[in-house]
């Protein structure tokens, strides 16, 4: 058997296995890229929903990028890469998120780069508790109602809006308490039982 035939057999043997292994690696890489693209699309769709509901567009995108990250924290450079946005746009977005209490800036030891992180698993609850948005909306609508003619249909309509926002402001604390109890019940329901029989079997 000449060298060319021996090379051909080796190529179809060990190199064949290597090629198959590389094929698996390529497929895994493609799958990971596909999953990443799917996550990115879902994040952008959620951010668009926040924007449609009145949340600023870039802060909404930055917030959803943070929420969907594994550790709930990213550097400004990572946010810029994920969002395809400039450093200035990211800086403005995280500044807004810090102002409303959704995000905090954390220093990394030995590095001058800051990390932007969600406060904790209950960041959205804490931010809702601190937010006076419903009281503010009620006060604003009251101002409109007072400016309208007394006994007018428009005045009655706006006054009802104010009452609705005050209703939400009054009920929100108890609703958030109920939500926290609900979250705690999930942990109790999924926790493994500590009761064991004398033989060590559950």
Question: What keywords describe this structure?
Answer:
3-stranded antiparallel sheet; mainly alpha; disordered N terminus; 8 helices; globular; about 70% helix; about 200 residues; disordered C terminus
Describe the model.
- By secondary structure, the chain is mainly α.
- Helices cover about 70% and strands about 5% of the residues.
- The protein has eight helices and three strands.
- The protein has a three-stranded antiparallel beta sheet with strand order 1-3-2.
- β2 (about 105) and β3 (about 115-120) form a beta hairpin.
- The longest helix is centred in the N-terminal third of the chain and has 39 residues, at about 15-50.
- It is globular, with a radius of gyration of 28 Å.
Write the layout of secondary structure elements.
Blueprint: H1 3-12, H2 14-52, H3 57-68, E1 73-75, H4 76-83, H5 87-99, E2 103-107, E3 114-118, H6 123-130, H7 133-147, H8 153-190
Antiparallel strand pairs: 1-3, 2-3
Helix pairs in contact: 2-3, 3-5, 4-5, 7-8
Oligomeric status of the shown chains?
Answer: single chain
Strand content: 5-15%
Question: Could you say which structural class the secondary elements and strand pairing correspond to?
Answer: mainly alpha
Q: Sheet bearing the most strands, described?
A: 3 strands, antiparallel
Order of helices and strands: HHHEHHEEHHH
Radius of gyration using CA atoms only: 28 Å
Question: How many helix segments?
Answer: 8
For the record, give the distance between the C-alpha atoms at the N and C termini, rounded to a whole number.
Answer: 65 Å
Strand order of the largest sheet: 1-3-2
Number of E-state strands? 3
Give the overall average pLDDT: 77
Indicate the overall shape: globular
Percent of residues in helical segments? over 70%
């Amino acid at each position: 058997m000449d060298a060319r035939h021996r090379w051909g057999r080796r190529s179809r043997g060990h190199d064949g296995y290597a090629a198959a292994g590389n094929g698996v690696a390529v497929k895994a890489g493609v799958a990971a890229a596909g999953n990443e693209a799917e996550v990115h699309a879902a994040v952008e769709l959620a951010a668009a929903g926040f924007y449609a509901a009145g949340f600023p567009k870039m802060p909404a995108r930055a917030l959803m990028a943070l929420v969907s990250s594994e550790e709930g924290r990213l550097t400004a450079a990572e946010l810029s890469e994920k969002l395809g946005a400039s450093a200035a746009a990211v800086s403005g977005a995280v500044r807004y998120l810090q102002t409303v209490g959704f995000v905090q800036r954390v220093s990394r030891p030995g590095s001058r780069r800051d990390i932007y992180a969600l406060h904790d698993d209950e960041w959205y609850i804490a931010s809702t508790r601190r937010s006076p948005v419903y009281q503010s909306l009620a006060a604003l609508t009251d101002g409109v109602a007072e400016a309208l003619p007394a006994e007018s249909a428009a005045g009655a309509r706006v006054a009802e809006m104010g009452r609705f926002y005050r209703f939400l402001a009054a009920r929100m604390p108890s609703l958030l308490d109920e939500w926290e109890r609900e979250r705690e019940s999930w942990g109790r329901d999924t926790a493994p039982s500590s009761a064991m029989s004398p033989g060590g079997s559950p």
